[in-house]
């Protein structure tokens, strides 16, 4: 029996169905890609915002740290002519004697007591305890630190006035540190100057941290 060919109406219907399926497939692909791009864009915006916030926070912290350090730390230095090589033995002897003065024991803080502050509440008056905060240690304070004249004050003079240093480090210069039990400190660098017969350890640099 001879098979009849497809009718034209059937061919047209099949063609339309295939075309519609193609259109639907294209639309689905565009919808999926659009959603992926939107999600990626949102993620990029979130990451960018987080990075900006982190950088801003880091910069603010850095600024606070720098301002705090500048308030607590002060330093000053000057040029002092070092002793000639001919006086090296005298320099070694003077520095060796001075390093033996280090106590290795931090100096006790001096404290100031703020007056009590009373705050009233609805039912009672609460008395806040006195607050003691170190403002200096031993004979060191902001004023006495400022009075040290670099370029002319000698190690012997400073030691006689403020006591023996807590720590000493020696090389071709003498590094002396007076440190309190709470960590406040004054550091002075002494440079050997003069000749073998008239050698002096002159304060050429000073730095303080934490004095009020």
Helix content: 40-55%
- Note the overall shape: elongated
- H and E string: HEHEEEEHHEEEE
Sheet/helix structural class: alpha+beta
Summed over residues and divided by their number, the pLDDT gives a mean of 76
Gap between N and C termini: 116 Å
Instruction: Tally the beta strands.
Output: 9
Main pleated sheet = 5 strands, antiparallel
What is the CA-atom radius of gyration, in angstroms?
Answer: 39 Å
Which strands sit side by side, in order, in the main sheet?
1-9-8-7-6
Share of β-strand residues: 25-35%
Low-confidence stretches: 50-71, 114-125
Number of helices: 4
Topology of this structure?
Layout: H1 8-72, E1 73-77, H2 88-99, E2 109-114, E3 118-120, E4 125-127, E5 131-137, H3 142-147, H4 155-162, E6 167-170, E7 174-179, E8 185-193, E9 200-209
Antiparallel strand pairs: 1-9, 2-5, 3-4, 6-7, 7-8, 8-9
